[in-house]
Amino acid sequence: MTIIYNIYIFDRHCECIFYTEWASQNSPLTARSGQSADAATAQTTARGASSDAQDRRSLDQPRPTVWPSSANSTHGSLQRNLPMEEHAKLVYGVAFSTRNIVNKLAGKDGPQGGNPGGFMSFATNTYRMHYYESPTGVKFILNTDPGTTSMQQVLEMIYRNIYVEYVTKNPLFNPNPAKSTPIENDYFRA
Amino acid sequence: MAKQYRSIGEEVWKNKVEKVNAELFIFTYGSLVVQLIKDYEDYHSVNKQLDKLGYNIGVRLIDDILSRTNLEKCKDMRETAEVISKIGFRMFLNIAPSVSAWSADSKEFSLILDDNPLNDFCELPPRAVQGGLWYSNVLCGVVRGALEMVGLLVKVEFVRDVVRGDEVSEIRVRLEKVLDEEVPVGDD
């Protein structure tokens, strides 16, 4: 049975535009000082039983918190969740560097990026990290239990059916290369 | 290669794309241009606005194309041109422009549109022709936006247009630069 721990989505400007987690004890979301409202909801004990969308809906759990959220960012920089930002940067760095190594070793390296070397996932004792990059530079990172073999198809499906459908087709979402905005969409969160 | 792209384009058009009434689309576009002209009064600004509109469309369109087809990275401009004409235009407008007039270094090409559906019910008054209005300039913006998201900085312009009295519509696409990927900001 596949257990999903969390998911990150980065846009082509290296910014984390979406993060959600299920069943995490030391959540970086709760590491901020003085934020009680989000801390309570972040301690969700929901377990993503499988990545199948139907299963998730039928499990009837409280919705996991999503980060970043504009409700915080409009109140000024005091509310910036620094541990979370650093966490996201670290994750991005790992994925970015590993993908570059894979590309170099495969001999298909180039300054334009993309994923010609085909970096798909790596595993440790406690988790496996899956990676998928679209040709437009949108990166999807998914952490699951180490027993899962491949989530390439799942990540591709997330890109095609969910990201493209609800995010790019949403007229209020700004894919402008100059700014990066978080994914605010309720449909996307579901 | 060309045959393969053509068949992919046709297959996507037939199966995977939701279709909307062409006349509705054409009339909506026409009234949009008219409104822009009324607002701006200067035809060059209208051209720029249409290009900007197209750019925003193109930036999202590319994700749509990529998600519906399993396209891989194009190796050079010639493949890119084929993909744009046979798959991109086919998917959204059901037309098949032809690619021609390659420059010596393969960085520039022309898309020849025999029948542009946007022009179907359109007649330009003489002052618009003199003022330099490119009626379908939104298409230039779309190509520019889409290519920028996959890392190609291009300049796209109309050269000839049926609405202005030429025989065919021609769009010239020029590769300015291949964009590098962004590296995350370091903590210094």
UniProtKB/TrEMBL annotation, chain A:
Designated name of the protein: TRAPP complex subunit bet5
Species this chain originates from: Linderina macrospora
Automatic annotation (TrEMBL), chain B:
Superkingdom to which the source organism belongs: Eukaryota
Protein name, per record: Uncharacterized protein
Organism: Linderina macrospora
